[in-house]
Specification:
eight-stranded mixed β-sheet, Glycosyltransf_2, alpha+beta, Nucleotide-diphossugar_trans, 33 strands, 30% helix, Glyco_trans_2-like, disordered N terminus, Glycosyltransferase family 2 protein
Length: 749
């Protein structure tokens, strides 16, 4: 067999819009000059469509080691498409997702053994991406001998293990280890990431310029900039970054807030004279940032306004990315991007890779800024920025805008489109006003609570962030705590004591679902517990099925609020249940989860991130008890995609509406993830709160997946999740796609 046989499909470098269905002819080369003609099917590419499909049924690729490479012209650190091998099975075609690896400048590759029965390779837009932009697609067949040699050079121990398992006939184990050994060493450092994934080439610039030139009626974006005594150098750099935008349809509206440095008005006048898109108004007296921004807003004529400080920098493609999003979705009201910081030497550091729209997180912190772009009519309707909120004037505006925002009309662009200067002495407005900014932030949330007529209160939370403390209805609704258990009396005793004597919630019932305990200590404990009128014990012997046991407990429960709780949970503070219940009773909330830590204080559960480790994983695993997490995420309540079933509260009505736990297909693993995804699909929010904190002695009562039967069951549950929720698992809205997914550590690598 030849060491390399190649199949290539060349496509145009432009996007393939859904409005142009057609067949794209491709030349496929498969070794020794053999040429095969194929149609690279250009199908409807809107959300949920099939995407691009390459027929390889008769090319002999199934069950062979291949390298698949493609280029995504969207340019980024992550692929906006899903690569799938389509396999003919007894129940029809099935898709197997192939997790590609990024190499920078829009290039991605996958190396592995294609599943037996592979008939086609498919590229499908990820959620929220209406079009593909694939410039080239190559499949190269690799010989096993060449791969073993490469793997031995990279990871000799893994390669030796692969050869051993192959020699004893364990092919699956051998293939898994060989694939791991072939993965190239990862990149490290933000500087490296910037070079590979966030540096425009001349080809990128030319492509963007040519694309914009073809747009009809491109949107005018008004960049508003309040200016007060910045250093000339940083102001010139800020102006230069706007004038250097690859998207030319902008105007820069500047309000000079009575700068005392005479160089500032001279510099601004010169810039306005050189470029008619720059408009300047000098205020007669200093009014601070809110008043100055409003003056700049009054100059704006564009349908959208982008907020920019006088010492910050926009990358050359920033307004292009914004305009592209507006053209794609003309109804958008709010667009925001990722950002990083720059120092006095222009060095980039501390990137903030954000999640999608998250109102719960916005209550606590202004995670949106920067770059923030808003429909101008909405800003006007909200009354612009409010004097008196200096330091948190943007947060106040966003909270007021959130009163009238439709989440479907908010878009997060997962790209670094703003460089925030942190150099001391640059004249940044908020440098000396931290305490004042915190007070203004708290006041902004207090006024939101008053506007909405909520009975809640607001207080200063950890690190100065806001905390919204919700009020319970009166009387407090009954919480039915459902605890599946078997034996392990020492664990169950702790959780029952914590619920019945260590929790200050006034209305609790406990439904213990016993899965066939036989140990005398456990049986005695269950008998004593049942004597408490707040406790009932259900006998449910048989194979362990968390979903089935939890469903049975819920059916027997009387409360309108259900709390599914593991038997290895320890209560550490009395107010945890009040926190959960006060959130769960809200009409728009479908499920609530708590902060769970191991006995040594390290974090076990900070919400669930989809796609981590294959299906899903815990956010910020194993961080220390004093670590606030990525940009404070582990000290602020927020929306997440899912929370663990080890401590999950929801209204009974929602539980029944979405169909309860899946006892048939997800007996042990991922049943909580599946339930939360159905909750979100039904239109409800899932919220994680750090203000309900518990200790979790994880998996002590059930043990590890260490038998062939358990492993087979686990693999079947993984298959259920990937088949049922494949696109969602690839695109967690609250975890930035630029971040690594081996673990949810909020890191690039």
């Amino acid at each position: 067999m030849k060491a390399r046989e190649q199949v290539t499909a060349q496509t145009p470098s432009a996007s393939l819009p859904a409005s142009r269905p057609a067949a794209l002819q491709a030349s496929l080369r498969l070794g020794r000059g053999r040429v095969v003609r194929r149609d690279f099917a250009r199908l409807a590419l809107e959300f949920g469509a099939e995407g691009l499909s390459l027929d390889v049924a008769d090319l002999g690729l199934e069950a062979r080691w291949v390298a698949i490479a493609f280029k995504d012209e969207n340019h980024g650190a992550f692929s906006r498409v899903e690569l799938t091998a389509i396999v003919d099975g007894p129940e029809g075609p099935q898709g197997t997702s192939l997790d590609e690896r990024a190499f920078g400048h829009g290039r991605f590759t996958w190396l592995g053994r294609l599943p037996a029965g592979t008939t086609s390779l498919r590229l499908t837009p990820m959620l929220g991406e209406p079009a593909l932009a694939i410039a080239e697609f190559t499949v190269t067949v690799r010989s096993r001998l060449a791969l073993v040699g490469r793997a031995a050079l990279r990871r000799p121990v893994l390669t030796a293990q692969a050869l051993f398992w192959r020699s004893v006939g364990k092919r699956v184990r051998s293939q898994y280890r060989l694939a791991r050994a072939l993965v190239p060493p990862g990149l490290t450092g933000y500087d490296t990431w910037v070079r590979h994934f966030d540096t425009l080439s001349e080809a990128d610039r030319g492509r963007i310029t040519a694309e914009v030139a073809q747009w009809r009626e491109p949107p005018l974006i008004s960049v508003v900039m309040p200016v007060y005594d910045p250093g000339s150098k940083v102001l010139e750099e800020a102006l230069r970054s706007v004038r250097g935008q690859l998207y030319p349809h902008w105007e820069l509206c500047i309000a000079d807030d009575a700068s005392t440095d005479p160089a500032v008005p001279r510099l601004l006048a010169r810039a306005a004279a050189e470029d008619p898109r720059i408009r300047v108004e000098r205020r007669p007296e200093n009014g601070h940032i809110a008043a100055a921004t409003n003056t700049a807003l009054a100059l704006a004529r564009g349908a959208y306004v982008a907020f920019m400080d006088h010492d910050d920098v926009l990358p050359a493609h920033a307004l292009y990315e914004v305009a592209k999003a507006i053209r794609r979705e003309p109804d958008l009201d709010l667009i925001y991007s990722d950002e990083d910081k720059i120092d006095a030497d222009g060095r980039r550091f501390e990137p903030h890779f954000k999640g999608d729209w998250n109102p719960e997180l916005l209550y606590g912190q202004n995670y949106l800024n920067h770059l923030t772009v808003v429909r101008r009519s909405l800003v006007a309707a909200a009354g612009g920025l409010r004097p008196g909120f200096e330091g948190s004037q943007d947060h106040d505006l966003l909270l007021r805008l959130s009163d009238r925002l439709d989440p479907a009309r908010v878009r997060h662009l997962p790209a670094i489109l703003y460089h925030w200067r942190t150099a001391i002495g640059s004249g940044t407005f908020s440098d000396a006003f931290l305490a004042r900014a915190e007070a203004a932030r708290l006041q902004a949330l207090e006024e939101l609570v008053a506007r909405r007529g909520w009975p809640h209160r607001v207080e200063r939370g950890p690190l100065g962030f806001n905390r919204l403390v919700r009020a319970l209805p009166h009387p407090a609704p009954l919480v039915s705590v459902v605890i599946p258990t078997k034996d392990r009396a020492e664990l169950l005793r702790v959780v029952l004591d914590g619920l019945l004597t260590g929790t200050d919630y006034p209305a609790i019932e406990v439904v213990v679902v016993d899965n066939g305990s036989t140990e005398p200590a456990a049986l005695a404990l269950l008998a004593r517990a049942a004597a408490d009128p707040r406790v009932r014990v259900l006998s449910r012997p048989g194979p362990f099925n968390f979903s089935g046991l939890s469903n049975d407990g819920a059916a027997a429960a009387r409360g309108p609020l259900l709390l599914f709780l593991n038997n290895d949970i320890e209560v550490v503070a009395p107010g945890w249940l009040t926190e959960l219940a006060s959130i769960a009773v809200e009409d728009g909330v479908g499920a609530v989860g708590a902060k769970l830590s191991y006995p040594d204080g390290t974090l076990q559960h900070g919400g669930v991130v989809l796609g981590v480790g294959g299906v899903a994983g815990h956010s910020h695993p194993d961080i220390g008890p004093d670590d606030p997490g990525y940009f404070g995420r582990m000290v602020i309540s927020q929306e997440v995609s899912a929370v663990t079933g080890a401590c999950l509260m929801m209204r009974r009505a929602v539980f029944e509406e979405v169909g309860r736990f899946d006892a048939a297909h997800l007996a042990v693993a991922f049943n909580d993830i599946d339930l939360c995804l159905r909750v979100r699909k039904a239109g409800y929010r899932v919220i994680w709160t750090p203000h309900a904190a518990l200790t979790h002695h994880e998996s002590k009562s059930r043990g590890k997946e260490d038998t062939p039967e358990k492993r087979a069951r686990f693999e079947a549950e993984v298959a259920t999740m990937t088949e049922r929720w494949g696109p969602e698992l690839r695109n967690d809205p609250y975890y930035n796609p630029n971040l690594a997914r081996a673990k949810a550590l909020f890191r690039l690598w």
